[in-house]
Amino acid sequence: MIRFYFHPTPNPAKVALLLEETGLPYETIPVDTSKGEQHLPSFRAINPNGKVPAIVDTDGPGGREARVFDSTAILLYLAEKTGQFLGASEDRPQLLSWLLFIASGLGPFSGQAVHFQFAAPDGLDYALNRYRREAERHYQVLDDHLAGRSYIVGETYTIADISAWGWLDRASRVLKEANDPLAPFPNLKRLFETVDARPAVARARAVGQDHAFKQVRDEEAKRALFPSNYPPVS
Predict the structure, then answer these.
(1) Which architecture does CATH list for 89-197?
(2) pLDDT tens profile 173-201
(3) What's this model's pTM, rounded to 2 decimal places?
(4) Which residue, of 87, 96, 102, 228, has the greatest Cβ tally within 10 A?
(5) In the chain, what are the domain boundaries?
């Protein structure tokens, strides 16, 4: 059984999609990041970095419990556990390259673009412009790569496409464009729509909907989400 620590944000969404694609049995455990539950000692014992997603596999290698954090690590772990969505063996170098491109570039710059456009105080135009333009640059790199390709790696759907889907699903916020945000990136738009049409996506979107996550961005939420902006409480 997989215990899946979840909040409805892009990185956990990737893991939800892979779990639904593989058919692995799992239990969703909500972690309300706006209430600071990611900082509780019980969760830090699973992910010392205090972020979702994380999983605990009670039937890990050698039959022992395995704890895995970071969405890319989880995607690789679950794909290798099931032997699914890894693509052809000869495409492994490209799979790793594009997974880490998303993990170290597309995802973080998208997240920072959202932060500086919607959460940061006014007057930080340099940071806003940098992260937004870098997000757009990463979109363009991936769009160029997808010209003439159906998927990111090889000829089949892999965890690289699942990883990209998690953040492309938030393109309207990343690019601050509500109307057809992926229109300037036609190959990326095609990939997103291909993945988004898969039956497992609807099931992944339903994960956590039975839990009332905190929606208000009050002082408690800001301290929980952006603790480095606040001095430690003595």
Answers:
(1) Up-down Bundle (1.20)
(2) 999 998 999 999 999 999 999 999 999 99
(3) 0.96
(4) 102
(5) 2-84+203-229, 89-197
